[in-house]
Amino acid sequence: RYEFFSRVVPPDSYQAQAMVAVVRALGWSYVSTLASEGNYGESGVEAFVHSSREAGGLCIAQSIKIPREPRPGEFAKVIGRLMETSTARGVVLFANEDDIRRVLEAATLANLSGHFSWVGSDSWGSKMAPVQGLEDVAHGAITILPKRASVPG
Asked: Which ranges carry the Receptor ligand binding region domain (predicted)?
């Protein structure tokens, strides 16, 4: 129907592979995962876990899912759960912008700036909104963003 239209978006499994490579390059062997409930978050974390198993040498401390409609206090609970395995300071996020922001806010309220090291997917990659005003807790985060290019004409 639209013979001259093309949009090629790489699958999230490529991001997951890149995130595993980043985690391994940092020398981490014990991380937690955090996903927004739904296809994007859950399939992204699933791809990360699969890629980490293939690569070997990486243990997932826990995989936490953020509900689609979180109740008040839900993000404080998420941070509390992450602290249950506090030696897993690396956290891999496949989450939407709002969930990322609320996780960072909860970490700030729990006085955990600098405790966690975040590795985020493309939902965070080039956006300021998730971290604006929360730079201290987000400091040092690494985000993945697939290469983008426009075709002239």
From this structure: 1-152
Architecture of domain 12-94+112-143: 3-Layer(aba) Sandwich (3.40)
> What would the 3-class secondary structure string for 47-67 be?
HHHHHHHHHCCCEEEEEEEEC
| Sign of the CA dihedral with 97 first, then 101, 107, and 110 last | negative
Cβ neighbours, 10 Å, residue 133: 13
Tokens of 77: 């609970």
The arithmetic mean of pLDDT across residues 1-9, rounded, is 70
Domain ranges of the chain: 12-94+112-143
pLDDT of res. 53: 94
Instruction: Find, among 15, 48, 6, the residue nearest to 146 by Cα.
Output: 15
